[in-house]
Fold each of these.
Amino acid sequence: MNNLWKTTKYLLGSLVGMIIIGSVSILANAIFADIILYFNQKNGMMMGEQTFGNLEGTAAVFVVIVGIIFFYIQFKVLLANGVSRKTFFWANLPIFAVISAIFALFITLVTILHRFFIPMITVSQKIYTGTNLFDSTIIQFAAYFFCGVLGWLIFLAYYRSNAAMRWVITLAPFGLVGLLFVLDSAVGGKISLAIGEFLSAVMGFAGSVPNPYIGVLSLLVLAAGINWVNYLLIRRAPLKG
């Protein structure tokens, strides 16, 4: 347990720079969007309540990138210093939770401050109508945590594969999407309709009023499933290079 705590603290310390870069990127996107809004207003365009999707989109992409590259940066260093693969795996889970919470809270803070001069809501509030900023923060946390472990899965899949398998992993999604389109066309759109209904249900849109916490639960359950696969991949991951 002591070794796990030390590893977690080390990883958190190593992550500070990336968190700062991510936060600055989010803030820069907000400023850029404000500049566009300013010129739109100057040209006579009406401004109501704004939704800055690029803020949450930036955070989601950044967390995926952290999941992809953070493993590689720290894996060799920690294993060389006697940290087991199991300890490394469990130490990384709080890392994704911390960075997800920081970005969710940071975007919520930007949204609150932004309302003093331009009304603004988050994408989460736009999608789940009737939700408040607390709900939005929880939704964002779950979404970013999912993105982080997904990025980790992507890297582990490539890391454990040879050159031929990496090509298969890269091209397989495109082939599956193409096949899905063909099959969907053959059955008159029933497949896409079924997928849409399923996603609507698991993300909380099945009722007359969207329920964000169904979506939060679904994202966390899916993240847990991905983490199980990540554990299987990492426990025998070779030390390369």
Amino acid sequence: MSLPSPRNVLPLEGQIDLNVSAKVADSLAQLIKDKPARLVVDLSGVNYIDSSGLAVLINGMRDMEDFGGIFILAGVRAE
């Protein structure tokens, strides 16, 4: 049984590269438009992220900080 994701958690999986970074950006924008106090991006299912994916995360962090929100990366792998 899997539990539903909390409203302000964006779970990502697989490869976050140029092919999917625009979709990730759209998903982040949808969550950020409501100006949540906190937004968690769960990277535990991500096995690869390129510079375009990192840019999307950095832009999301900046957008959250613009209104005082907290942007959290969870499940970051060391490798």
Amino acid sequence: MSWCSDNADWDDLLAYTTEKRVVVRHRWLGLVYYFSILAIVIYTIVGTIILQKGYAVNLPIKGGAVRSTVRARHDEIEWSSSFCDPAVKSGEFNATLPCVYPDYKANVLAKTTTGVSNGGLLVGTRVSVTRQELNTTLHGSVYEGWQDAPNGTKMSFYVTGAEDSTIMIQHSVSLETQRKFGGSTLMGNNALIVDTSNSDRPVARITNEQNTRGADVTTFSQANGDIVKMSDVLHVAGVRLDDYIPQHRESYRYEGVTITIAIRYAGQNTGGGGTSYSYEVATTALPGKYTEADEDSPTTRTVRDLRGVQVLFSQDGSELYVWSWYAFLLSWLSGAALIGIATTVANCFLKYLAPRRADYKLFVQSTTPDFSPDTDTDKQLLEDILVEKRRERGRYLQIRRKSILQVISGARPAAARP
């Protein structure tokens, strides 16, 4: 162990091997190379770091909450709608049916449903009522089940004024998300993610996925929530209730439709500008429906099938950014990798494509002799070269040993002669 510590040369053990650097005096190659380097630097700073926000990462919205309620028009409902006809007595689809008043407060014509990641809302456009009786025929020890009563005709009604109703949306992100966005201490509204709990929030906008249709959202200054007209939601979603569903014989008003509204938060905690949010609407092929049954007696019940516009909410933070040293350094490392690629491309051009590539290789490449010689000439050549290499190394070691002895003996090494 003592021998290893006395004789070990850490400079030799930890020696670093580098490639030989050659300065190529060629103006056109230099112009192309340095222009490429400049373009990479500009792309890294402007394209990656600034435009693509390479200094930040997305903040996912976790633990948020959304609450929605529906309200009918306060003024008189228009009963002369084109789809209302009290003379029609039909339980199945018809373009016109008897209409009922949109009494949403009774929790019959409007329901709270489960949504994508938060609760949703079903605003009724058609309700059907069917009386059923229990078939007491036994199959083993199990009743056959419920069936429509012989004298219990199915009755269907359209809900008038659905397009004229309004939806109040209240949403908030979790305190943990607020802390991640604003840091360990929340300092004023500039460090907060704006939601409907902020009375001075900017006016939001509701748009479709392609951003081709949109509408402004009414904001309550008392921080009660955002008011959205159902007619605006349907317009932005591209849905008209009396249109027929593709490949179906029923209309959206009769069958129902499901619309998703993503609450998209935007902003960053790396500078001014604050945060904001918007609503993005999308339409699905899923009908909006809710079925419930009330037992009138042990053997009879009334089934209500509510169809309408089901609105499902979700919260999205894909445009919400927080500072990240990891992302910032990764952006610079990607730029450095591009510079390395540019250098490799330039070297490959000089070695394999340039007109004087053979001359260039004389400066950057060294060829060893054949270490597995097949002929006597190759064997002699290898031996002569190895002898010369050993002589060079021996001279180096002799000079090094002499210098070490001079240092040990206290003598100053002689100055090198020109």
